[in-house]
């Protein structure tokens, strides 16, 4: 039961982050819905938070979340991280965040391909 409650809390946090960030980006409502429908539903709330912690902090990512990230796709990853990095409080370090985003993608795709070709 505690694990279920924790998962619900994580989902709530991700939904709250999306709701908090999307209006600030001046994207129209259909684009925000499209991002939700096509991107955020492809990744677990836990991995979404891990990815944010890697790009905007100093965390590390596990293999499972790397796999989820690759499954989400580069366009979704790039777009969502750029939207967050465009926040006024973060824009001063946007170049750093975009580099970390790209480094994370490179790391995860290499790991994904390594696992794929070792099968």
Number of helices: 6
Classify the helix fraction into a percent range. over 70%
* Strand content range: under 5%
Largest sheet: none
Mean pLDDT score? 78
Order of helix and strand elements from N to C terminus: HHHHHH
Number of strands: 0
Question: Low-confidence parts lasting 5 or more residues at pLDDT below 50?
Answer: 4-27
- Quickly give the structural class: mainly alpha
Distance between the termini: 36 Å
Shape descriptor: globular
Short key terms for the protein model shown above:
globular, 119 residues, mainly alpha
How would you portray this structure in words?
Residues 1-20 form the signal peptide. This protein has one domain. Helix content is 74%, strand content 0%. The protein contains six helices and no strands. The chain has helices at residues 2-21, 29-38, 45-56, 63-72, 74-85, 94-117. The longest helix is centred in the last third of the chain and has 24 residues, at 94-117.
Write the layout of secondary structure elements.
Blueprint: H1 2-21, H2 29-38, H3 45-56, H4 63-72, H5 74-85, H6 94-117
Helix pairs in contact: 1-3, 3-4, 3-6, 4-6, 5-6
Domain Prolamin-like: 38-108
Pfam families: Prolamin_like
Keywords: Signal
Short recap of the structure:
With 119 residues, the chain is mainly α. It has six helices and no strands. Helix 3 packs across helix 4.
